[in-house]
Amino acid sequence: MDCRPDFSSAVLQAKTYIQRNRWKRGHDLAMPDGYKGFLAEWVGQLAAYPLMAGFEGNLLSGDPGKFNAEKALNFWDENVNSLIVRSTTDPDMFRTVLISIALIFENDAELHPYLREWLIKYLRGEIVAPRRPNGRTQSEGLHNLIAHAVADLVDAGMNPTRNDESPPLSVCDAVATALAELSLSPITFAGVKKIWLRWDKSFWIQLS
To answer: Residue 27 in 3-state DSSP?
Structure first.
């Protein structure tokens, strides 16, 4: 039995995914300023974590009201690692790493071992800021949402792309239609396909 969604259902699923995930902590990730604001808050949490560790009611645990040190540390590790990995190719993330280190020092907090290693390499000149590729937009937050909407439908068994001559029934077509209905862009198969093919599938911000 074929359980793959039909095209209309795929459009609705993509639209629902984007609407449900575009807002994080009051920031609209589909907008450049919202994404940057979210990154700034994320950096603040990275800096604040070691200051809060050990207090009851710490919501970094998966169980609100209870502090789970192991889960909290794993959460911290995942976020810092994601930040560093993405900073190798993303100029905005590179600056975010520097800001996070500055905030940690300002708060006399503990520097995460990953950040300590990164800082040593940076001061030695072994790490340099990546250049922004020609044509790169300021819509990384929206592009992450789009790529994940595509991945969500691929997981449901649909083909992500198609030949240019084939009927417009691929996942990228469905997501483009959903974006048009949400007054977002790109609204073409080619535009969504380009985002999907260049997306770093190893990266997604872990902060919820």
So the answer is: strand
